[in-house]
Amino acid sequence: MASPTAANLEDVPSLDLMHELLRRMKCSSKPDKRLILIGPSASPLSSAFLFLAPTGDMLRAAVAAKTPLGIKAKEAMDKGELVSDDLVVGIIDEAMKKPSCQKGFILDGFPRTVVQAQKLDEMLENKGTKIGKVLNFAIDDAILEERITGRWIHPSSGRSYHTKFAPPKVPGVDDVTGEPLIQRKDDTAEVLKSRLEAFHRQTEPVIDYYAKKGLVANLHAEKPPKEVTAEVQKVLS
After folding, report:
1. Distance, CA of 215 to chain centre
2. How far apart are CA 80 and CA 113, in angstroms?
3. This model's pTM is above 0.70
4. Average pLDDT over every residue of 65-77
5. Quick one: how many helices (H) and strands (E) in the chain?
6. What is the DSSP string of 201-221?
7. Strands, E assignment, 46-182
8. Is 112 exposed, middle or buried (0-12, 13-18, 19+ CB in 10 A)?
9. Which GO terms describe its biological process (predicted)?
């Protein structure tokens, strides 16, 4: 439900208004939390009071909105260049001003290097705040390879399968339509190997950087989702 404004408040059903009021009261009592997710593979996490912010999504949003920083980022991308760390931190700074970030945020995919972490900390310090916790979703490379390279999807519906953990009734075929399944290009062993090499070389030092600040919580990402969720809830409680 979109937040009602003074102009259209009388047109909003009473039940919707009550739900919105209760939602805001619940959110207002939540403590501020500013988190970073780190792991060799994406580990989505959501909460009623936190804004999940994959950095790529924020970057694309800034480009689409044609903000000053978004325009600079687009110029770099059009030239085939990497968007600078300062630009990315600036875009995160802009995103933090949105109402959805007022009670906290989760950064997923940034920082990837120690230099980025230092720039992020400097920006937050200038705002009088800081990262509260870094969740390290640790998992053995071999287990991750088994999980990712076994994934297959039905492209038109998005239904996903796994050759070991959730296989289709007929190998290579969608259960509902009988159409062939495909494997995403990023789910191959070759691509995963490249990503893992980059993670170990660039991002593992970020874990050490935040560990020295006493901010890292090591989670066992190889466990079933429910157990990992319980670990996250325990860390954040």
Report:
1. 18
2. 20
3. yes
4. 85
5. 9, 7
6. IIIHHHHHHHHTTT-EEEEET
7. 51-54, 104-108, 133-138, 151-153, 160-162
8. middle
9. purine nucleotide metabolic process
Comparing CA positions, the residue from 80, 76, 89 lying closest to residue 118 is 89
| Of the candidates 23, 37, 45, the residue with the CA atom closest to the CA atom of residue 225 | 45
Q: Is the peptide bond before 111 cis (omega within 30 degrees of 0)?
A: yes
Instruction: Read off the tokens for 172.
Output: 């290579």
Residue 127 has pLDDT above 80, yes or no: yes
- Going by C-alpha positions, the residue among 33, 42, 191, 209 that lies closest to residue 109 is 42
Tokens 């995919």, residue?
109
The string of pLDDT tens digits covering residues 9-49 is 455 555 555 555 555 544 444 556 788 889 886 444 433 33
- Please tell me the predicted confidence (pLDDT) of residue 223: 85
Structure-block tokens of residue 11: 């047109």
As a whole number of Å, the end-to-end CA separation of the chain is 28
Residue 53's CB: how many other CB atoms inside 10 A? 23
